[in-house]
Structure to design on (1012 residues):
């Protein structure tokens, strides 16, 4: 039995080795198409009702506003991103959008090899030595965090506000720091309690972490998770105390109508459509600051006095106009 | 760090809640292993139970139907394991691992087919907590022990019921015989094949219910990897409990307690990287197992396919 | 009767017949598996013929696809070899994912340490790979030690250690080694001279497959031609008899697990310097460890057979991504695909071993 199976396997391997020669003959040289064709590569599922879904929605906006052909791939692990991008390029897609900051290396590798293809990549801080065919979308979450920190400080009755995020990365630490900065301006005695669960998308961990915060006396939670937010919502709903929460990326107030304050919405259609528009006009490199006013906006407000809602909206406008500029501290957290 | 932190009632309440899926899955696995089958697909089975149960509960808005769907779907997986392991006499460990991977992917696929991109994550109403009158008003431990969802009470009640069944009924004896000495049991007229099939299907159904627990009682949504390794913990709880229903309780409670505690500790000990706390439950589990393995005695015929025609 | 006639010559017809039977058997299992998987494709609303032709054309219908398939083949092959070695030695190494991660950690760490040391590139590459090998070996060695000394089942310890490894990598990739520009769980890159040279230009494929192929030979040689390999196999086949025969079972089990982990660790190092440009990332292994177990089972723990099957799974891995683009097949389906294929192949084989497939002739 073993000998023949070995033989079979050798044959299989040989077959695999020979077929590309056939493939070589059949693949035609790339026709230069002038139409802009956009491909979006996403790290997670579009059914996540969060980051990846937003990417998908943004792509629809791009298709409509810029009148281009689009395609997408979801749940692409970082290890596979380069490969998937190459496959799109082989199919004549000439704009590749990487949806997330995980793909900086992949982008830099590909940009050099394919000078006729334009890439859009996201990151937390500006990428140095940007190649001439790469657009860099720099996300400035901490600016939005400042507004939410201010809000939480005004709404808290226990003097303790919480910040709950997944992975302890520099730009998520920057948010914690700007929350702390804003809260300190409202009342220096307010305590900001932060917790990093390690996974943006794990609601079980989120629930337990939120429970721990609530047990410590936190009564406003600024949630900065993706799919893990449902855990926070359940913890807030299950609590006998009144705990309020804000969320990030989409409006989720239907899930906890009486505990929900506001959400910092992300409209990725704004940056992506803008950049594709620029690319269509021949501008293939640049930096786009993804910040309040440029793709980040406030959702409608709930469960707060009108005075505080007004002050939140006015603070937000000041952030949009750069009248208020929070400190960006990505090095370490405020109490270390 | 004060002592009060360690015995905070809300912490204990959460620990008891989170111990339930572990215990329930362990009980299901115990039934399976006592009959002589090793099922390492628990993590995948719980995943399927969570996913299928969530989908049915969402569309029917009924927890009972969700629970039944979860149990039925995983019972089917149990049957599959039985078919490979009992009828085809395959290596149960390898097949179990294949089912595990299948179980990881399937609910994700079904969820994606059922819902595409959605603005707000589909959500079901959590199973409500049922406060038992009188008992739940006992100061301090009342709310911890007696203000929990129905499924928690049922699970803990299952322990003495299962114990009684296994050790005090003739049917239970037959079941154990299949796992200890199938040849002897066969000569005495026990149908090994039927018993093992029944056990693996029923045990799997229970495991499916344990999986459904997570979306139904903890998170109200379904996400990928929602089981987070609990299936593997449950596998070890059976050994930790020396294949006795009652003894698995302490293991389940210990793991759930440490898991819930780690978040409290992380809030206090700021300079320690949070990931260190996250490893705690798993490292503690390993340390505990070192102790346990010295003394545990498994069912003698565990994982050995039964072949009537074979000699010896 | 001379010595020569004691060696029976198997007639050519018998070999051919047996080969044919094998091809038919595995051919049938692959076809059935593809049929079952097409149910999933249909359920997502895709055209089946289209889908399958896309799978193959994207994984080796072009040089890029072929190169990427090679890249995927490397960790699957190494992982399966690791599992297979463990199996032959009587242990079940479910911790390949964790060992890949820790091997990657050691490799990246050494890369950082050697940043300013003036040594030639090939030597750095060798040292980094060696670090991965040692790292994975040490990590699995912990499980081996617990099994050898305390009799703790390695299935449990290796699985638990998978989780711990993820936390370690997450800490390193978001903390001390983090690359702040990316804003994700990715480390800074190690020196570029440590990166693996590319195998086929402009396809992104790297040399790693050569190391994997060498390892196939290495494992085969170890198991069949060395004393250690003999001990490993003896303990795997019949622990009681081998103990009577003087083999130290505990040492053998420990070494088997350690070596198994070392091979997995090597895969981790290769991924770091071959695929990710010298960076350790969270998500380095998308379930390679679990797939490795399936491949090893289908490959009956034999290095040469695993060589073929891992290639087959690599083709499907790479190819199924294209289904997303061609028929909008959800990404979650890939794992299901692979698992179903595994179950069907095992099913057909088990039926055959049981004698249920009479038309194929007797089981050899």
């Amino acid at each position: 039995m073993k000998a023949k199976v070995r033989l079979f396997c050798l044959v299989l391997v040989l077959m695999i080795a020979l077929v590309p020669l056939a493939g070589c003959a059949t693949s035609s040289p790339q026709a230069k198409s002038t139409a802009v064709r956009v491909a979006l590569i996403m790290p997670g599922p579009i059914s996540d009702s969060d980051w990846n879904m937003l990417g998908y929605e943004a792509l629809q906006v791009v298709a409509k506003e810029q009148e281009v052909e689009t395609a997408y791939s979801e749940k692409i692990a970082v290890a596979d991103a380069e490969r998937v991008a190459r496959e799109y390029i082989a199919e004549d897609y000439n704009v590749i959008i990487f949806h997330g900051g995980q793909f900086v290396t992949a982008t830099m590798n590909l940009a050099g090899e394919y000078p006729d293809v334009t890439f859009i990549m996201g990151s937390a801080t500006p990428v140095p030595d940007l190649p001439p065919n790469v657009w860099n979308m720099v996300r400035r979450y901490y600016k939005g965090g400042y507004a939410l920190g201010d809000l939480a400080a005004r709404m808290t009755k226990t003097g303790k506000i919480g910040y709950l995020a997944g992975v302890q990365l520099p730009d998520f630490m920057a948010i914690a720091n700007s929350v702390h900065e804003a809260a300190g301006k409202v009342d220096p005695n307010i305590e900001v309690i932060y917790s990093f669960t390690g996974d943006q998308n794990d609601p079980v961990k989120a629930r337990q972490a939120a429970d721990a915060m609530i047990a410590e006396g936190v009564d406003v939670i600024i949630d900065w998770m993706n799919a893990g937010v449902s855990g926070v919502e359940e913890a807030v709903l299950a609590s006998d105390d009144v705990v309020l929460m804000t969320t990030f990326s989409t409006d989720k107030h239907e899930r906890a109508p009486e505990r929900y304050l506001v959400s910092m919405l992300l409209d990725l259609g704004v940056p992506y459509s803008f950049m594709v528009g620029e690319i269509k006009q021949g501008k293939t490199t640049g930096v786009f600051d993804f910040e309040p006013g440029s793709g980040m906006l406030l959702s409608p407000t709930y469960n707060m006095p009108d005075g505080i809602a007004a002050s939140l909206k006015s603070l937000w406008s000041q952030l949009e106009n750069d009248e208020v500029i929070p400190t960006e501290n990505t090095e370490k957290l405020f109490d270390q | 760090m004060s002592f009060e932190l360690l015995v905070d009632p809300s912490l204990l309440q959460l620990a008891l809640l989170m111990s339930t899926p572990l215990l329930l899955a362990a009980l299901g696995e115990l039934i399976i292993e006592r009959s002589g089958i090793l099922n390492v697909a628990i993590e995948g089975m719980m995943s399927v139970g969570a996913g299928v149960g969530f989908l049915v509960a969402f569309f029917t808005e009924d927890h009972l139907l969700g629970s039944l769907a979860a149990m039925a779907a995983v019972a089917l997986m149990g049957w599959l394991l039985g078919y490979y392991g009992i009828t085809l006499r395959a290596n149960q460990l390898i097949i179990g691992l294949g089912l595990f991977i299948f179980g990881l992917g399937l609910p994700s696929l079904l969820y994606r087919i059922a819902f595409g991109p959605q603005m707000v994550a589909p959500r079901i109403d959590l199973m409500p907590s049922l406060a038992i009158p009188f008992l739940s008003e006992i100061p301090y431990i009342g709310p911890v022990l007696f203000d929990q969802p129905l499924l928690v009470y049922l699970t803990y009640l299952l322990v003495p019921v299962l114990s009684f069944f296994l050790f005090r009924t003739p049917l239970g004896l037959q079941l154990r015989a299949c796992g200890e000495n199938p040849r002897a049991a066969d000569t005495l007229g026990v149908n090994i094949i039927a018993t093992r099939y029944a056990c693996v299907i029923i045990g799997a159904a229970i495991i499916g219910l344990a999986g459904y627990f997570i979306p139904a009682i903890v998170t109200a949504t379904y996400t990928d990897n929602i089981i987070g390794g609990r299936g593997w913990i449950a596998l070890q709880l059976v050994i930790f409990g020396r294949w006795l229903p009652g003894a698995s309780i302490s293991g389940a409670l210990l793991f759930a307690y440490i898991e819930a505690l780690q978040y409290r500790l992380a809030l206090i000990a700021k300079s320690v990287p949070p990931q260190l706390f996250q490893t705690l439950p798993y490292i503690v589990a390993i340390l505990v197992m070192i102790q346990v393995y010295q003394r545990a005695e498994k069912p003698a015929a565990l994982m050995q396919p039964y072949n009537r025609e074979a000699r010896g | 009767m001379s010595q020569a006639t004691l060696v029976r010559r198997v007639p050519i017809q018998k070999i051919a017949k047996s080969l044919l039977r094998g091809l038919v058997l595995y051919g049938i299992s692959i076809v059935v598996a593809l049929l079952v998987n097409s149910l999933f494709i249909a359920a997502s609303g895709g055209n089946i013929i289209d889908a399958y032709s896309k799978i193959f054309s994207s994984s080796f219908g072009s040089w890029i696809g072929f190169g990427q398939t090679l890249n995927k083949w490397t960790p699957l092959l190494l992982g399966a070899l690791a599992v297979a070695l463990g199996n032959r030695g009587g242990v079940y190494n479910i911790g390949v994912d964790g060992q890949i991660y820790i091997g990657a950690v050691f490799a990246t760490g050494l890369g950082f340490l050697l940043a300013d040391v003036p040594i030639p590139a090939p030597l750095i590459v060798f040292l980094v790979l060696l670090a991965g090998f040692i790292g994975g070996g040490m990590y699995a060695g912990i499980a081996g030690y617990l099994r050898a000394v305390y009799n703790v089942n390695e299935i449990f310890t290796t699985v638990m250690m998978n989780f711990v490894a993820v936390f370690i990598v997450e800490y390193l990739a978001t903390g001390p080694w983090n690359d702040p520009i990316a804003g994700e769980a990715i480390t800074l890159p190690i020196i570029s001279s440590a990166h693996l040279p590319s195998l086929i230009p402009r396809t992104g494929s790297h040399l790693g497959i050569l190391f994997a192929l060498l390892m196939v030979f290495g494992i085969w040689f170890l198991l069949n031609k060395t004393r250690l390999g003999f001990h490993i196999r003896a303990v795997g086949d019949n622990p009681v008899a081998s103990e009577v025969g003087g083999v130290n079972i505990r040492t053998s089990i420990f070494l088997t697990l350690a070596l198994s982990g070392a091979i997995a660790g090597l895969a981790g190092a290769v991924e770091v310097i071959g695929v990710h440009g010298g960076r350790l990332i969270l998500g380095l292994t998308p379930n390679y460890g679990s797939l490795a177990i399936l491949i090893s089972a289908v490959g009956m723990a034999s290095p040469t057979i695993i060589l073929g099957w891992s290639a087959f799974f690599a083709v499907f891995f790479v190819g199924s991504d294209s289904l997303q683009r061609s028929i909008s097949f959800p990404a979650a389906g890939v794992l299901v695909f692979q698992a179903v294929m595994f179950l069907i192949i095992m099913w057909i084989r088990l039926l055959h071993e049981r004698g249920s497939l009479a038309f194929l002739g007797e089981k050899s």
